[in-house]
Design brief:
There is one protein chain. By secondary structure, this protein is mainly β. The protein has one domain. 0% of the residues lie in helices and 55% in strands. It contains no helices and 15 strands. The strands form two sheets. Strands 1, 3, 4, 6, 7, 9, 11, 13 and 15 form a nine-stranded parallel β-sheet that branches. It has a six-stranded parallel β-sheet with strand order 2-5-8-10-12-14, with no helix packed on it. 23% of the residues are buried.
Length: 117
């Protein structure tokens, strides 16, 4: 009889799976990963990851964000916002550090907040 060993990284994520859509606001105390759709605002005290299939129609407020999907709304990431290749963002952005990979689309305004550096 073999024993199953489960290794954890210590990271805790709430996950919204592909094919799932929520209409309403989400507030998270921890990191959160969205692979589905959200029509509403997303606020997190941690990191937000929006996967390649994700669609957010609303505002995002968090500490760090990594966007690989689509966002139609304003983003406020206190520390860093990363736009991965093939991502699409339409709205105002406020962050300390902005990383935009080739292939991503950003249409909007950007305000760099130097106070958090």
């Amino acid at each position: 009889m073999s024993k199953e060993i489960v290794a954890t990284t210590g990271a805790v994520y709430s996950i919204l799976a592909p094919g799932t859509r929520i209409i309403g606001d989400i507030y998270s105390e921890e990191d959160i990963r969205i692979e589905g759709g959200l029509e509403g605002n997303l606020t997190s005290k941690g990191k937000v990851i929006l996967g390649p299939q994700s669609v957010l129609k609303g505002n995002l407020k968090c500490v760090n964000a990594e966007v690989a999907g689509s966002v139609e709304g304003d983003i406020e990431a206190n520390e860093q916002l990363s736009l991965r290749g093939n991502s699409s963002v339409r709205g105002a952005v406020k962050t300390s550090t902005l990383v935009i990979e080739p292939g991503s689309v950003f249409n909007g305004s950007c305000e760099m907040n130097l106070e958090n550096r």
